[in-house]
Write a structure and sequence with these properties.
It is built from 11 helices and 5 strands. It is an alpha/beta fold and 237 residues long. β1, α6 and β2 form a beta-alpha-beta unit. It comes from Aspergillus uvarum CBS 121591. GO terms for molecular function: oxidoreductase activity; transferase activity.
Length: 237
């Protein structure tokens, strides 16, 4: 095996050694232990060192669930982004209004639940605001749609931009709208994670607490697509 002439999986398959190990592993009930780890360490990373079947990883991921049976390992990015945007950046309050773009996506679904939990009035299309403006805009749309979203922000309102396309192309905003005490805030979660990881950790813990309290319910993963079929994933969306 160390000389590279034989694969470890072949050795473990002899005399049903691998099957015996999995039979023994199936007898262990470590679901509660894994759930506890996932709750206390939202930034948990897993490294599988094994024969390459992926069975251990599958069992661990299966155990990473909330008390309500929802998977915990797919919620972090979308709920952390939504919580950071609506709670930390925009300070969204009960009774305020919010426009959430791309509401059918992962972040959109998460943001809707966070906004509902807060008690905000939710819009998902600009036309629905009837030109009145909203207190908060959560935007990921680029180009002209970004500028249109900026004009939807009411006086003293906040726009949180989570798309990176206009950041990188150095887009510009109309400055006159700032005169009415509007705020524009950018949010790039990966950058926060890299420089101030404790901020993301606190937000993730808050999200897990919300899930355990039943005030938000993560959407289940309905389909999984391999990277080679990414076009099918976008078509499915």
């Amino acid at each position: 095996m160390f000389a590279g002439t034989q694969h470890a999986l072949h050795l473990l398959s002899e005399d049903d050694l691998l099957q015996s190990f999995y039979t023994l592993a199936d007898a262990w009930d470590y679901n509660e232990f894994i759930q506890l780890i996932g709750h206390t360490n939202p930034r948990l990373r897993m490294l599988e060192v094994g024969a390459g079947t992926g069975t251990t990883t599958f069992r661990v991921l299966k155990a990473l669930r909330s008390p309500f049976g929802e998977r915990l390992y797919h919620i972090y990015t979308v709920y952390a982004t939504s919580a950071m945007a609506l709670v930390e950046k925009a300070n969204l309050q009960r009774g305020q209004s919010i426009l959430i773009h791309s509401a059918c996506g992962g972040v959109g679904h998460a943001a809707i639940q966070v906004a509902q939990m807060i008690g905000a009035k939710i819009y998902c299309v600009m036309e629905a605001t009837n030109g009145r403006g909203v207190d908060v805009v959560l935007n990921s749309l680029p180009g002209d749609l970004l500028y249109a979203s900026w004009t939807c922000v009411a006086e003293f309102g906040v726009m949180v931009e989570i798309g990176i396309r206009d950041f990188r192309r150095k887009a510009k905003l109309s400055m006159e709208l700032f005169e009415a005490n509007r705020t524009f805030a950018g949010l790039e979660l990966k950058g926060i994670w890299r420089v101030r990881p404790w901020m993301v950790t606190e937000v993730l813990k808050r999200c897990v607490d919300w899930i355990e309290a039943g005030v938000i319910t993560p959407d289940p993963i309905s389909n999984i697509f391999p990277a080679a079929h990414i076009h099918e994933a976008f078509r499915f969306m």
